[in-house]
Amino acid sequence: MALSKLDNLYRAVILDHSSNPRHAGELHTGCMIDLNNPTCGDVIRLTVEFEGDVISNIAFSGHGCTISTASASMMTVAVLGKTKEEAKELATIFSAMVTGETDERQEALGDAQFLAGVSKFPARVKCSTLAWNALKKAIDFGEAQETVIHGE
Question: Which is the most buried residue in 77, 119, 132, 146, by most CB within 10 A?
Fold first, then answer.
């Protein structure tokens, strides 16, 4: 596939996740994390429900740029049903990827691997990692109900 066609595919997937975000909304129970990216105004509220060590439900709300919203949508799809350890590993792989590191495990990110190009735009890295940072905080707090953290 020609590079321009591949770039167009990546753009289409990113725009689809931004326009039709998966797992958008709020849950009434679970660990709730509020984070923001003051450099561009992105705000996310991530709520994660756990059954033991497994992410049983996840949702996000807020507002943000295309990259931030698409990344949150992609993240929720990638981690739903995963253990806390698996989800943290995906977050680590994602963070490394958007800062320019390559890792053969990137395929495990699903659609989120299409955000690898963010590494060419350092100002967008915080946009792409906002949801993933909220996920790491939710995992660290675990079963805590109504935990809210402001700021990144």
Answer: 132
Percentages helix, strand, coil for the chain (3-state, rounded to 5) are 55, 20, 25
> Domain for residue 150, yes or no?
no
Residue 149 lies in a domain: no
Domain of residue 37, CATH code? 3.90.1010.10
Using a cut of 0.70, tell me whether the model's pTM lies above it. yes
In this prediction, residue 103 has a pLDDT band, given cuts at 50, 70 and 90, of confident
| Strand intervals (E) in 17-138 | 31-37, 42-51, 54-63
